Amino acid sequence: MNTAHLGASVHKSETGSAGVAVPRLSFDQFTAFGQRALFRADTPVVITLPDDVQGLGREGVAERLGEMTVTLFEEPSSKQNTERWTTRQIRLREFFEDEKYQAGQGRWHRIVSNIRDNPADVNAVLGFDAEEMFGYRRSLNAANLWINRRGVFTQSHFDELENFNIALEGRKRFVIAPPGFWEYYPRSVLRGFGDKSRAFDFDEVDRARFPKLAARLAERRELILEPGQMLYLPLGWWHQAESLEEMNINVNFWLRHPKIFQRPYVLGVALYTAAYRKLKGVYNYQPAGNRAESGR
Ligand SMILES: O=C(O)CCC(=O)C(=O)O
Questions:
Q1: pTM to 2 decimals?
Q2: Which numbered atom of ligand 1 lies nearest the CA of 243?
Q3: Which atom of ligand 1 lies closest to the CA of 231?
Q4: Is 288:70 a contact under the CB 8 Å cutoff?
Q5: Ligand 1 — pocket residues by CB below 6 A?
Q6: What does the pLDDT read at residue 290?
Q7: Hey, what's the torsion of the CAs at 258, 264, 270, 272, to 10 degrees?
Q8: Domain boundaries, the chain
Q9: Residue 186: beta bridge partners?
Q10: Where are the beta strands (DSSP E) in 139-181?
Q11: Please, what CATH class does the domain formed by 17-280 belong to?
Q12: pLDDT of 10-28, one tens digit each?
């Protein structure tokens, strides 16, 4: 398989109202194709992990990492929320055990904790040697553990890094749209929201308010990521995610890549936002334990 093949399969599978279908690769196809070729193809792909890769679910994660200090994010449970997330450090066990972290109480809670400094834990949670595969320990890269309950929604945004997102427990629905900046109506760049759209939810877009979005969203991808699957989400692509199960556990790798220089708005927003977050003490995805309480 080559890059052109992936591109062609994307084009052929256009389906009108549901946007563009996402190519699916077996793990063997992914390794034959190669990570670098995937980065060049620059299109979202779902990869099925081999059957013998057994990642951990809730019980295994709680048993192995229960005493770990992780970062808990909190925000009002509204898809249209304009407030920053707040964060604090807790023991992971507390998240699993305390009912206040269940959905449905007006607040959304999620663990998003960068555990890149604990490669043995990353490998144990996933069931394979992720450092060998992704080289995530290089500077600026991240290996994040995501845990939350049903309904938690991540508003539309883009990241400045290549992304592999692996589902371990629970299904997550993603809506993904091609790179672009002004046509996505970014929120205030100066206030550190330049990576987020004023159209928070691409499923419910006010077409009169955001007319330029229609053309981009015609090319959107909609998919449900199932346990045992890995999503490749290219740098600069817009995305949102909604957790569909009582318990959702994912690990994602963010990997820096020179592609960022081809998307100057991504680079500009990333540099500004990193400086802004540092100045304001806003959360910046460093591994837990190295920083104090902060907000996003
Ligand atoms: O899982 C989520 O809620 C969001 C995931 C995401 O934004 C990412 O992997 O970059």
A1: 0.92
A2: 3
A3: 9
A4: yes
A5: 146, 154, 159, 163, 165, 172, 239, 241, 250, 252
A6: 43
A7: 140
A8: 17-280
A9: 197
A10: 142-148, 153-157, 162-169, 172-177
A11: mainly beta
A12: 433 333 456 999 999 999 9
